[in-house]
Structure to design on (174 residues):
């Protein structure tokens, strides 16, 4: 069997942004629903949310279906967010434009771009280094977080969803 090194989004350094700090900010922000595709990077965070939080975790099979779910929850007056890897964000752009932007749904998008921190990730187009460029091209407002100290911008982004007609993104650079 041949093993191929395919870049993913598991961080080299895990203490830059902690799962506990992300959970705490989401809970303090009043997020009611977190729509996500289960990933190993988020395993601890999701387990903590499922077992010890008021946030309801909705697991999807494809990121694009999560965009529709978040749009519907937002339309229904709920505070919802997505949590995806950068590849998941790339895969959901069609749904983002066709559903969320077209229906003027504004919710929080958390996008993991961990592998962009590695030297190999910075050189590889699959490494997540184009998330900010894509968000700019789509005219979606975004913030970037590289440490626990910067996590309060999640609250700022969530506040912006109240007046925006598009989702607002936070790039988590683990």
């Amino acid at each position: 069997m041949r093993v191929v090194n395919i870049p993913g989004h598991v961080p080299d350094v895990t203490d830059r942004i902690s799962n506990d700090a992300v959970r705490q900010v989401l809970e303090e922000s009043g997020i009611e629903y977190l729509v996500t595709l289960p990933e190993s990077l988020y395993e601890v965070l999701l387990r903590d949310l499922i077992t010890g939080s008021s946030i309801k975790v909705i697991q999807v099979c494809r990121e694009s279906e999560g965009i529709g779910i978040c749009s519907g929850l937002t339309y229904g007056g709920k505070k919802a967010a997505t949590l995806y890897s950068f590849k998941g964000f790339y895969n959901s752009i069609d749904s983002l434009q066709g559903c969320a932007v077209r229906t003027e749904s504004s919710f929080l998008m958390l996008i993991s771009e961990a592998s962009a921190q590695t030297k190999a990730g910075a050189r590889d187009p699959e490494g997540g280094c184009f998330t900010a460029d894509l968000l700019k091209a789509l005219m979606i407002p975004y913030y970037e977080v590289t440490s626990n100290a910067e996590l309060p911008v999640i609250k700022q982004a969530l506040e912006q969803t109240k007046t925006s007609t598009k989702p607002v993104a936070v790039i988590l650079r683990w």
User: Anything to note?
Assistant: The helical segments are 19-29, 43-52, 63-75, 86-91, 93-101, 119-123, 131-137, 153-161.
